[in-house]
Write a structure and sequence with these properties.
By secondary structure, this protein is an alpha/beta fold. The protein contains 14 helices and 21 strands. Among the domains are: 215 residues, 3-Layer(bba) Sandwich (FAD/NAD(P)-binding domain), CATH 3.50.50.60; 154 residues, FAD/NAD(P)-binding domain (3-Layer(bba) Sandwich). The strands form six sheets. Strands 3-2-1-7-19 form a five-stranded parallel sheet, with helices on one face. Strands 8-17-9-10-13 form a five-stranded parallel sheet, with helices on one face. It is globular. The protein binds NADP nicotinamide-adenine-dinucleotide phosphate (NAP). NADP nicotinamide-adenine-dinucleotide phosphate binds next to helix 4.
Length: 533
């Protein structure tokens, strides 16, 4: 079985881990466009960049890290975690960095994907074929410049938070900052400390909340030692935090008491921190809490009140070589301009992805991304995605969602190997039903209300980034594939040809326990489970 994974971030690495320990007879190639693994945590290195999920819960669920330096960790420390994981499990052997996938095409006759790969280091393209193509590029990876007239005419350094240039020194400079999403909120308190002046351009209000679950603070050596030496207590702590993260879900349902209570609490907390009526009026939203992704901000609102920070509310109408001009006519002279303006979240693949009948997923999803349960697309056999459209990326913890999807994909790989299958292709009617049900569900959520957010399609305004339910709900949904939602094609004329010579595989192993189903009592497991299927 030949598998190509695109991207070596948290998802691609997990797939490699899964294959290495659960499969035999496979060839795995992971193509990573960057110089190293890590994805988001390799690319996002702006000052103050960190994860706003408590660090002890931002690991694979089965691979904790006792020695995080603080309750919330910097992007570099998170990158190091994934890098150490890759080394510990010897996964680097599968990863080719500096390799960018530029085109993929399903070959119906051969039932395989034909993949064009560009080696950035030697400036050359080659072709590989595989049985499964797994897109692990991530949803927040294709960063974008804002569409503001004149932006490319700006003469000073022009930076994007997701493509940070460490060589640019902000010390003593007049800095402009566009955007107040999670990135803008994290970077402002840090750059304010060194810049002469920061002008932050804010277009829409946003709910800035205290951190999720734990206060931001450094861990002491003693604490780290306790985590290491008391694994049971440490596990209890991780479970308690996870409970808070999964428990946030009812906040997103319209009219639940927690929604109004949180809005009132946050309004009061924001007002107090901003301490300026006019600014509070502009920065506190009128849309429900959670419609945009909640943005935990450590010292963000406080920074807005500092003498070397000016907040300009409104649209930037023009960028000149030396300044930004806003809709009120205010012109601000700047030395450096930072865009914290987010990513392309349309879910259109970055490269042509040509499926059955020559259809390109880039075109099919130009209007609206229509996934099957966030992991597959009809007409694109043996193609799976991590964190595809309508995956659970905003209603609770995210690493578990990656593990759930990896395990789900592994079920298909396993069946493909065992039952001599050629292709799995989700049926179009199954996708249509999923999308209809999802849209119906979204009507009762705050995500559907009157805010601008990357959770929604910029074309249709429908919620395209989020799963219609909680993370726990997703885990249950994905526990077992619904094969009746797939068209399955077999390698042999007879779908049962794989039954072969009539021997169980275990009968070829001299050390196998061939009476595994004899038990002391009914332990509830099915016979197959007791053999570890
Ligand atoms: P974002 O949430 O999409 O925010 C982009 C910001 O740029 C918005 O404030 C947007 O304003 C503004 N913007 C875009 N185009 C503009 C224009 N032409 N003129 C003026 N303003 C413009 O992007 P992000 O802050 O990078 O965050 C994206 C996601 O990444 C987050 O929601 C989160 O999931 C993830 N993230 C996570 C962390 C973490 O700690 N875990 C940190 C950073 C990011 P409008 O709202 O008016 O469009």
């Amino acid at each position: 079985m030949r598998v190509i994974v695109i991207g070596a971030g948290a998802s691609g690495i997990y797939m490699a881990y899964k294959l290495k320990y659960n499969f035999t007879d496979f060839v795995l190639d992971i193509y990573e466009k960057n110089a190293d693994i890590g994805g988001t945590w390799f690319e996002n290195r702006y000052p103050g960049c960190a994860c706003d999920v408590p660090a002890h819960n931002y690991t694979y669920t089965f691979d904790p890290k006792c020695d995080w330096s603080s309750t919330y960790s910097s992007s570099r420390e998170i990158f190091q975690y994934f890098s150490d994981f890759v080394d510990k499990h010897e996964l680097r052997q599968y990863i080719a960095s500096h390799h960018e996938v530029t085109e993929t095409r399903w070959d119906e006759n051969a039932s395989e994907w034909v993949v064009q790969v560009y080696n950035r280091e030697i400036d050359s393209t080659f072709e590989r074929r595989c049985d499964f193509l797994i897109n692990a590029c991530g949803v927040l990876n294709s960063w974008r410049w804002p569409t503001i007239p004149g932006i490319q005419s700006f003469k000073g350094p022009l930076l994007h938070t997701a493509a940070w240039d460490d060589n640019v020194d902000l010390t003593g400079k007049r800095v402009g900052l566009i955007g107040n999403g999670s990135s803008g909120i994290q970077i402002l308190p840090q750059i304010q400390k060194v810049a002469k002046h920061v002008t932050t351009f804010v277009r829409k209000p946003t709910w800035v909340i205290p951190t999720f679950g734990s206060e931001m603070r450094e861990h002491t050596d003693e604490e780290r030692q306790q985590f290491r030496e008391n694994p049971e207590e440490y596990l209890k702590m991780r479970k308690a935090t996870e409970k808070v993260l999964t428990g946030v879900y009812p906040l997103f349902i319209n009219d639940w008491p927690i929604q109004t209570q949180t809005a009132e609490y946050m309004k009061a907390s924001m007002k107090e921190k901003i301490n300026n009526e006019e600014l509070a009026e502009q920065l506190i939203p009128d849309f429900p809490v959670g419609c945009r992704r909640l943005t935990p901000g450590v010292n963000y609102l406080e920074s807005l009140t500092l003498p070397n920070v000016t907040t300009l509310y409104g649209e930037i109408t023009e960028i000149t070589p030396t300044s930004c001009i806003t809709s009120t006519g205010t012109e601000t002279e700047l030395d450096i301009l930072i865009c914290a303006t987010g990513f392309d979240t349309t879910f259109r693949p970055r490269f042509p992805l040509i499926g059955r009948s020559g259809h390109n997923l880039q075109d099919e999803w130009a209007h609206e991304p229509r996934s099957y349960l966030g992991v597959a697309a009809s007409g694109f056999p043996n193609y799976f995605m991590f964190l595809g459209p309508n995956s659970p990326v905003g209603s609770g913890p995210s690493i578990i969602s990656i593990e759930v999807q990896g395990s789900y994909i592994a079920e298909f790989l396993n069946r493909w190997q065992k039952e001599d299958i050629k292709a799995f292709d989700p049926k179009r009617e199954a996708v249509d039903d999923f999308i209809t049900q999802k849209d119906l569900f979204m009507e009762q959520t705050v995500w559907n209300s009157n805010c601008k957010t990357w959770y929604k399609s910029p074309v249709t305004g429908k919620v395209t980034a989020l799963w219609p339910g909680s993370v726990l709900h997703y885990i249950e949904t994905m526990a077992k594939p619904r094969y009746d939602d797939y068209d399955v094609t077999y390698a042999s004329k007879n779908r049962f040809a794989y039954l072969g010579n009539g021997f169980s595989q275990m009968e070829h192993r001299p050390d196998a326990d061939t009476s595994y189903y004899i038990r002391a009592r009914d332990d509830g497991a099915s016979v197959a489970d007791s053999w570890g299927h």
